[in-house]
Every structure is written in C-alpha cells, then in structure tokens.
C-alpha cells in the first residue's frame, strides 16, 4: 500500500519533532505567533484589541449597546452595533455578545416598502383627508390608497385606515333635516321640539324699552349732547375757570 505525500511528511515530522506536532494539533485557535506559539481565542463578548501575529492575542471586552462579538476569534475585533431603520422599533437591544434585533414591522403610522428590501427605511403612511376614505388601509408593507367618498357615503375624519361610511338616509318623523349628507359630513337632523326652532305659543315678544325723546328745554340744557349732568354756570365771572375745569373733568369721567 502506498502512502500519499502529506500523511508521509506528517508521519516523519511526528517522529522527528513529536512535541511540536502535538502542540500544533492541540492549538484551539489554529493560529500561531511568529515564534510558533499558539494564539489565544477571544471568547464571545470580547474582541481582539491586538490580533494574533508577532505576539499572542490581546482581548478587550465589547461595550454594552456599543459593540459586540458573537464569535470566538484570535483576530476579529468587536463590531459596532447595528441601528434599526428610522421609525422601526428595536425588538432586542444590542449586547456584548449579540447585535441589535429590529422589529419585523414599522411603528404605527408607518410602512416598509417591500420592493426596497430590508435595508430601506420606514415611511409615513398617507392620511386620507376629510371627504376621502381608505380603499386600501396602510399596512406593514403597503401605503394607504385614498378615494373620494361617492354619493351616499361620507368621511368626517382624517385617517390612514378608515373607509367612507354610508350616509344617514333620512331623519325621523319628529326631526327636521338641517344639512344633507355630503362627502365630508353625514346628514344632520334636529329635534322639531327644540325651543331654538320655534316660539312657545302665548309667549309675548319682549321688546327693549325705548328712551323718551328729550324736550326742547332738556335738549337746550345740554348743548354738548353729553350724558353727564352739567351744573349751571354761576353768575360770578371770577370763578368761571374752576367751573369749566369741573365740567371738563365730569365729561372725561363720563367717557371712561
């Protein structure tokens, strides 16, 4: 039986250097320094600050919510934690041994376009205006499809999911229609017996009292048409200035 070259060389080396061959077979990392020493593995949650090479591996712990390492390696450093797309909730936060896990769907009011793949961002759902209803409501991967409410239907709210609702067909016998149904509002009815719609029988009309007209003597006593009482001027002409000041003050107070 003929032996192949590789096993034959290994057999010869094991005979010549039995200790070195045994050490290499027992090296868990499978990597060695330039001097032939077996390099240490950095466990999960640790990264290689100095990878195996001229010297042995130097490991460092990964930072919580910052970096992670999910494998054991003699060369790989801690990797930065991933960030979920905008408006996509975080299902599981990043740990030193595991990357961030994003929720499978966007936050309410947003959707993830399926045609863009998993790397796309969540987009806000279109909101149907008043008078429009959602033919296709906003879903995890589909945007809202709005349509104007047809005759006999209405929508009074802005929504990304509410459809047009059927109008109220008619008012009751004891009601009166105030407003007919339109795309933006339902039929509006009101009770016929409401006091706002009719006057109670026998209820007299309340008129505001009118002021009696001024007589000629009363009209001439107040030439400036002021509602304030003005005292008559005294005969003493020496005190006319204080009297005018009093009159002016009375007029100002009446205007305040």
Overall description:
- By secondary structure, the chain is α+β, with helices and mostly antiparallel strands.
- Among the domains are: 29-104, Tumor Necrosis Factor Receptor, subunit A, domain 2 (Ribbon), CATH 2.10.50; 105-196, Tumor Necrosis Factor Receptor, subunit A, domain 2, CATH 2.10.50.
- It has helices spanning 5-16, 18-25, 216-220, 240-255; strands at 46-50, 58-61, 67-68, 79-80, 90-92, 101-102, 110-111, 123-124, 132-136, 145-148, 153-154, 165-166, 175-179, 188-191.
- The strands form seven sheets. A two-stranded antiparallel ribbon has the order 1-2. The protein has a two-stranded antiparallel sheet with strand order 3-4. The chain has a two-stranded antiparallel sheet with strand order 5-6.
- Strand 1 and strand 2 form a beta hairpin.
- The chain starts with a helix and ends with a helix.
- The model is unreliable at 6-14, 16-22 and 217-231 (pLDDT under 50).
The overall pLDDT, averaged over residues, is: 77
What is the strand arrangement across the widest sheet? 1-2
Structural class: alpha+beta
Helix content: 10-25%
Content of β-strand: 15-25%
Give Rg in angstroms: 47 Å
Largest sheet: 2 strands, antiparallel
Quaternary organization: single chain
- H and E string: HHEEEEEEEEEEEEEEHH
Strand runs, count: 14
Number of continuous helical runs: 4
Q: In the CATH hierarchy, what is the class of the domain at 105-196?
A: Mainly Beta
How far the N terminus sits from the C terminus, by CA atoms, comes to: 128 Å
CATH superfamily of the domain at 105-196: Tumor Necrosis Factor Receptor, subunit A, domain 2
- From the spread of the alpha carbons, the general shape counts as elongated
Subcellular location: Cell membrane
Membrane topology: Single-pass membrane protein
TNFR-Cys repeats: 61-102, 105-146, 148-189
Keywords: Apoptosis, Cell membrane, Disulfide bond, Glycoprotein, Membrane, Receptor, Signal, Transmembrane, Transmembrane helix
């Amino acid at each position: 039986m003929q032996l192949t070259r590789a096993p034959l060389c290994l057999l010869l080396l094991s005979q010549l250097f039995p200790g070195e061959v045994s050490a290499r077979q027992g090296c868990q990392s499978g990597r060695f320094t330039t001097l032939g020493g077996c390099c240490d593995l950095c466990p999960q949650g640790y990264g290689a600050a100095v990878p195996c090479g001229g010297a042995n591996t130097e490991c460092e712990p990964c930072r919580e919510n910052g970096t992670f390492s999910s494998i054991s390696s003699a060369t790989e450093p801690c990797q930065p934690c991933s960030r979920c797309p905008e408006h996509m909730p975080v299902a599981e936060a990043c740990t030193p041994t595991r990357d961030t896990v994003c929720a499978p769907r966007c936050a309410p009011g947003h959707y993830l376009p399926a045609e863009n793949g998993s790397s796309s961002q969540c987009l806000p759902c279109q909101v149907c205006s008043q008078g429009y209803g959602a033919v296709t409501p906003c879903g995890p991967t589909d945007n809202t499809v709005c349509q104007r409410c047809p005759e006999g239907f209405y929508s009074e709210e802005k929504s990304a999911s509410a459809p047009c609702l059927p109008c109220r067909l008619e008012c009751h016998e004891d009601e009166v229609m105030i407003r007919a149904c339109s795309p933006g509002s339902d039929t509006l009815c009101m009770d016929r017996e409401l006091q706002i719609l009719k006057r109670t029988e026998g209820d007299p009309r309340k008129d505001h009292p009118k002021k009696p007209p001024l007589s000629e003597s009363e009209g001439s006593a107040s030439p400036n048409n002021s509602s304030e009482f003005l005292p008559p001027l005294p005969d003493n002409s020496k005190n006319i200035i204080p009297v005018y000041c009093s009159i002016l003050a009375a007029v100002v107070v009446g205007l305040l």
